[in-house]
Amino acid sequence: MFVTQESKLKKIVVIGDRVLIKPKAPSEMTSSGLYLPPSVQEKEKIQQGYVVKVGPGYPIPLPTDDDELWKGQEEAIKYIPLQVKEGDLAIFLLKGAIELQYENEQYYMVSQNAILMIERDDELFD
């Protein structure tokens, strides 16, 4: 059995409202035709990339019925799901992102509230 980059990513579990994003290669040229050095590209406040993994969402607190011990404890945690899906192109604030290196690839771990907007191609999910 061969180990591929995709199979290694399947082992990653993203927690809570966080999203794992693979950055899109930055454009070296502006719309007016100026070439940007890498140091300028890295200082951009907004970044974009493709959503690789999505956490389960925002946890909903369990009701506390301490007076009814006979009911037992329900262990299943319920979540409010996130809006983003795997494969979306996300535009996010770099200030709210944590840069990660995994298997010599660069990723960003971003909370959903740092994502400004997404572009979704519904044909990817058919």
In the CATH scheme, the class of one domain would be Mainly Beta
Head-to-tail CA distance between termini: 28 Å
Please, how many helices? 2
Report low-confidence residues grouped into runs of 5 or more.
none
Which topology of one domain does CATH recognise? 10 Kd Chaperonin, Protein Cpn10, Chain O
Query: How would a textbook summarize the main sheet?
Result: 6 strands, antiparallel
Write the CATH homologous superfamily of one domain: GroES chaperonin
- Average pLDDT figure: 80
- Strand proportion, as a percent range, falls in 25-35%
> Care to count the β-strands?
8
CATH architecture of one domain: Roll
Q: How would you spell out the order of helices and strands?
A: HEHEEEEEEE
Structural class: mainly beta
Calculate Rg over CA atoms. Answer: 19 Å
Query: What general outline do the C-alpha atoms trace?
Result: elongated
- Percent helix: under 10%
Strand order of the largest sheet: 6-7-1-2-5-8
